[in-house]
Amino acid sequence: MTTNQNALITLSASEAAEGLRNGDFTSEQLTQAHLDRIETTEGTAVDAEDRSLGKTGLNAFLHVNAEQALDDARQVDADRAAGKQLPPLAGVPIAVKDLIVTTGQPTTAASRMLEGWMSPYDATVVQKIREARLPILGKTNLDEFAMGSSTEHSAFGCTRNPWDLDRIPGGSGGGSAAAVSAFQAPLALGTDTGGSIRQPASVTGSVGVKPTYGSVSRYGVIAMASSLDQVGPVTRTVRDAAALHEVIGGYDARDSTSINEPAGPYLAEAEKGATEGGLKGLKIGVVKELTGDGFQSGVSQRFQESLELLRAAGAEIVEVSTPHFDHALGAYYLIMASEVSSNLAKYDGVRFGLRKLPEEGPVTIERVMSATRAAGFGPEAKRRIILGTYALSAGYYDAYYGSAQKVRTLVQRDFTNAFEQVDVLVSPTSPTTAFKLGEKTDDPVSMYLNDIATIPTNLAGVPAISVPAGLAPENGLPVGVQFMAPVKEDARLYRVGAGLEAALQQQWGGGLLDQLPDTESLIAARTQGSAK
Amino acid sequence: MTAITRDQVAHLAALAHIEMDETELESMSSELDGIVGAVQSVSAAPIDDVPPTSHPLPLSNAFREDVVGETLTNDEALNNAPDAEDGQFKVPAILDED
């Protein structure tokens, strides 16, 4: 039986960093191994003329940055050979969600609107990973402007789930999650507005963290909904997420919502949580409103098993009620869409991006804008802009946007009350395992329901992590467990997340991704199947 | 309370500067109707006397020191422009010709 086992690509980032320090291999070898894996698992363009059809394989990357990544890797190797002091993760490659701007390679937000656009500056998080000397493998696929829960709204074709190529990898950050779970990259950056890091992590068997709002800079992150957006790590282990969070976190004067306090330490907390008895004294609240009805049976089953393991590891488990979470989804979609309608107004064909002339009639600037936005935005972006325009318009503002903002207060209060009773909260990350590609594209409301467990944290700004909890017995697909902590208490997530991870891995005899089917065989089988 | 009409969507699309054909207006109005139906329960939440929250953190305006820093050069700023002339963005006529 073929497997994904390859000495270099299956290492966690922490293991790879140690191997580099010990001189077991070079960053060039490590980076090349990942580029090779990308080459063999991405697939080829379905139609060379039409990028919207995507690729035959994972299609996790919109751009592969091979030459620059290898140059950076060789520079790290040279500096190490010269005995220079290097940051802890130096030489470990990383993938970056294509919503985060980078110099030297295109940034598209998976939209036709920005096809071919080259950012004149680096996002702060990109600057930080460059300073930490992580070679950038490329830019990962997403739902257009990060709007979606399946990556099917990408203008450049959907990303496929490495567990089953006919299923969604989650969204919006399906590219980053697929890349990390399929061993194309040991680390990735994502963004999370309503679950876009955590839900993809959940359905691909990887780890994803949405940090406290304001604790990681948003400078250079293409804005979707500014009061909700946050950058965070996508990894295969909790420890790696903690290490990457330490790299990207911290104050940034260029983000006016940045918290002026140092980030971390997180790695030490992850190590503490993974040790024997590391969860003793921790009080965990099961969110009553985010369990039971509406959750797939295998999801609930793995969730209950995780609770047992946490209890066995020394944590106290109680039930907590957050009565207003029932209204959170509605509030989220109104607030998010309202902010979207404002943030996306800048794509008008004047200063950058697409410009489309009207097909007939006079060429005035207003008509050029309307033609440009009609051609540049996909259906989901248009839906959200129109919904936001509606929610903010005179006569409807109080009933929709105004009410949603008040519900936001109630959701925040629910968290405050809950955290007076417990240290962290827990729920399944997503109500279901990965669904089939195309299953929900015609039904926006059922697509939105995927975010039911992840959006309350974005409304309140609190941090959360998704940790793999095993495979659902009914379909063999990954299930995720979500922990939530009070604002600025991200460290607790790493402690409890690492504790659960250690207990589960002891049971499995390794990581969940050791059980991932061989990606290259899956792609070959699928390509042959469709050729018949 | 809902029932979003085709004409309403046409008005919203005009406000948002997105050209839409008849098919798109029809499908958007039925989709939007479904979405609004699903989210309007917010007004039924117990929100009387609850203050609105626009932002998750209690932040006031953050200002940097008023000093000259690095900025994009004129060329860098125009590099991605669909059209430019004499160091400026070039746009079609602002007013109708008539």
Automatic annotation (TrEMBL), chain A:
The GO cellular component terms are: glutamyl-tRNA(Gln) amidotransferase complex
HAMAP family the record matches: GatA
Alphabetized Pfam families for the sequence: Amidase
Coding gene? Answer: gatA
Q: List UniProt keywords, sorted A-Z.
A: ATP-binding, Ligase, Nucleotide-binding, Protein biosynthesis, Transferase
Q: Which chemical reaction does it catalyze?
A: L-glutamyl-tRNA(Gln) + L-glutamine + ATP + H2O = L-glutaminyl-tRNA(Gln) + L-glutamate + ADP + phosphate + H(+)
- Catalytic residues as annotated in Swiss-Prot or TrEMBL: K97, S172, S196
Upper taxonomic lineage: Bacteria, Bacillati, Actinomycetota, Actinomycetes, Micrococcales
Give the highest taxon in the source lineage: Bacteria
The protein here is known as Glutamyl-tRNA(Gln) amidotransferase subunit A
EC annotation from Swiss-Prot or TrEMBL: 6.3.5.7
Name the protein family: Belongs to the amidase family. GatA subfamily.
Assembly behavior: Heterotrimer of A, B and C subunits.
UniProtKB/TrEMBL annotation, chain B:
Query: A GO biological process this protein is involved in?
Result: glutaminyl-tRNAGln biosynthesis via transamidation
The reaction(s) catalysed by this protein are: L-glutamyl-tRNA(Gln) + L-glutamine + ATP + H2O = L-glutaminyl-tRNA(Gln) + L-glutamate + ADP + phosphate + H(+); L-aspartyl-tRNA(Asn) + L-glutamine + ATP + H2O = L-asparaginyl-tRNA(Asn) + L-glutamate + ADP + phosphate + 2 H(+)
The reply to whether Transferase figures as a keyword in the UniProt entry is: yes
Enumerate the UniProt keywords alphabetically: ATP-binding, Ligase, Nucleotide-binding, Protein biosynthesis, Transferase
Which organism is this entry from? Answer: Rothia koreensis
Note down the stretches annotated as region Disordered: 76-98
Tell me the protein's name.
Aspartyl/glutamyl-tRNA(Asn/Gln) amidotransferase subunit C
Of which family is this protein a member? Belongs to the GatC family.
Subunit: Heterotrimer of A, B and C subunits.
EC category: ligase
- What HAMAP family does this protein's entry cite? GatC (MF_00122)
